[in-house]
Design brief:
Layout (H helix, E strand, L loop, with lengths): L1 E7 L2 E10 L4 H14 L3 E5 L3 E4 L1 H17 L2 E5 L3 H9 L2 H4 L1 E3 L1
Parallel strand pairs: 2-3, 2-4, 3-5, 5-6
Antiparallel strand pairs: 1-2
Helix pairs in contact: 1-2
């Protein structure tokens, strides 16, 4: 996983790129810490350059959702590629998370 992030007002935006797998857990947690420390009210993960995600990677989005509820910010997943969106839909993530095309 590679990520680039920025804070625009009260919106934290992070582009998550390449692959999101079990080995990225620590880096993903650091990204969530950045969101919390930023004071943002909304977090947007741009997934347009995320080519693949495994089951652990999907679990990280659930961790992010739990963290958002605990810390008081909203979470949006934006523009997942077809393969990633298919996995999310199969796992019914579209029922739990806000996913924008």
């Amino acid at each position: 996983m590679h990520s680039e992030s920025q804070l625009n007002g009260d919106v934290f935006k992070a582009a998550i790129k390449d692959r999101l797998t079990f080995s990225d857990h620590a880096e993903f947690r650091k990204l969530l810490d950045q969101v919390n420390k930023s004071g943002a009210h909304k977090c947007v993960f741009d997934l347009s350059k995320l080519a693949a995600v495994d089951s652990a990677g999907l679990g990280m989005f659930i961790i992010a959702l739990q963290e958002s509820k605990k810390s008081g910010w909203s979470l949006t997943l934006r523009a997942p590629q077809e393969r990633v969106l298919a996995l999310m839909t199969l796992a019914k993530f579209d029922k739990m998370l806000t996913i924008e095309s």
